[in-house]
């Protein structure tokens, strides 16, 4: 029978953190990293949780480590499922927006022949609106002239 030497000698907090969380580095007896744990989807003070987990991993009997695994299986599973469901919903929403953007790009491409160089569709609509207003003013002026002619007045 050979002596079993634990592969994980010590757990330390990594010298960095990210928006995901604070990693825990698992070190062997020589101090080399043999693994990494990350607390994902934690609410509240995740750094405190990570410190507690590292302390549990460093416990002499590792009983706390086994307790931590059981707690994780019970409470985190629901939160992980909820996070996955939210990510899926966000993905579907992203695809819907992507489809809308592609349709908008198609519509812009279809009207490109009517745009001046460097003009956007919005600018074209504004220009057309101003043109229509100017034409309406001319029409009103002409109607006033016609009415005056009918009434026998000459302005």
In short:
By secondary structure, the chain is mainly α.
Structure description:
With 155 residues, the protein is mainly alpha-helical. Among the domains are: 1-58, no CATH class; 114-155. Helices cover 58% and strands 10% of the residues. The protein has three helices and three strands, in the order E-E-E-H-H-H. The protein has a three-stranded antiparallel sheet with strand order 1-2-3, with helices on one face. Strand 2 and strand 3 (33-38) form a beta hairpin. The radius of gyration is 35 Å and the shape is rod-shaped. The mean pLDDT is 75.
Radius of gyration: 35 Å
Note the overall shape: rod-shaped
Secondary structure category: mainly alpha
Number of strands: 3
- Order of helices and strands, N to C? EEEHHH
Could you give a short account of the major beta sheet?
3 strands, antiparallel
Extract low-pLDDT stretches: none
How confident is the prediction overall: mean pLDDT?
75
Query: How is the largest sheet built, in terms of strand order?
Result: 1-2-3
Proportion in β-strands: 5-15%
N-C termini distance: 121 Å
Oligomer, anyone? single chain
The portion of residues assigned to helices is 55-70%
Number of helices: 3
